[in-house]
Known about the structure:
With 103 residues, the chain is mainly α. It contains 5 helices and no strands.
Amino acid sequence: MEQTKLEKVINILNEKGYTEGQIAYFVQNLTKTNFARAYVEAMATFTKEDIAKIENTTSQEQADKIIAEIYTQRTGKNANIEAQKFIEVFCEGFLKAYEKTIT
């Protein structure tokens, strides 16, 4: 099975001597950045009623589900697919930059 671009990035970090903790921190921050990007895009389309609906949820999981649903309704995009695209683009840039350093 072919490696994903993120797996390739992680392998490079391992080869460069980064610890598992540092790599986990990197992936966690990449995920947070990705979520923040999507959240900002979504919030730009939310109405006061949407925000009230989100704030009245009983769990973060429920709020995330509502945010994703509203995001899809307002933007016509699937939040999960957009998240995957963000990670792919980031990893492509990382891999291209890395290739320049070794050639």
